[in-house]
Each structure stands twice: as C-alpha cells, then as structure tokens.
Design brief:
elongated
C-alpha cells in the first residue's frame, strides 16, 4: 500500500468537492435551507486539518466520523420528505466534520 502526501491531499480534496457539489445542488434545488451549508463548513474545516496532519506525517484514521458517516447523513437528507428534516441531516453531517476536525486538532497539539 503506497501512499503519498499528494495522493492523500488529492483524495481529501476530491471528497470535499463532491460534497460541495451535492450541498450546493440541494440548496439551489430547494431541498435544504441555507443553514444546511453548515455541511460545507464542517467539510472544509475537516479538509484543512487533514492537510495539516498529512504535512506533518500523521495519520487521521482515528477520526470518529469518516466519509461514510457524513455521506450517510447527506444522502439521507436528500431523501427526506421535508426541507426542515433535510436541513437537519445536512447540519448533522457538518457537525460530524467539526467533531473530526477537533479530534485531529487535539492530536496535532500533543
């Protein structure tokens, strides 16, 4: 299993771009309220801390909430019958990103 810094950053950036596209599409499509943009902020914060961790040679595999958990709530939000319920799902996905970011930040500060 060969990993490079460039590959890790590219993988993480690709994830964030796809999440950004889905969240903005949901907003433009009227599926979520603007508050659902918290998902993008949480995702961007997580990307920032992952890149910092990667540049220091540290792993982020220990983060409590990974890609699968965040995407689960984003996809669930797309399937919800009401805008309010969809928005809550997107907010949860954003909070998951923030929680994982804090975990990485704490680990980096040690």
């Amino acid at each position: 299993n060969l990993e490079t810094l460039r590959g890790k950053v590219f993988d993480s950036a690709s994830d964030r771009v796809s999440e950004l596209a889905v969240v903005l599409g949901a907003l433009v499509g009227g599926i979520i309220e603007p508050l659902g943009l918290v998902a993008i902020i949480g995702s961007a914060t997580l990307f920032l801390f992952r890149v910092i961790s990667y540049t220091r040679g540290a792993s982020t595999d220990y983060a409590l909430f990974g890609r699968a958990e965040r995407l689960f709530f984003i996809m669930l939000g797309l399937l919800m019958p009401s805008v309010a319920a969809s928005t809550v799902c997107f907010i949860i996905a954003g909070i998951f990103g923030f929680v994982s970011s804090v975990q990485i930040a704490v680990n980096l500060s040690r």
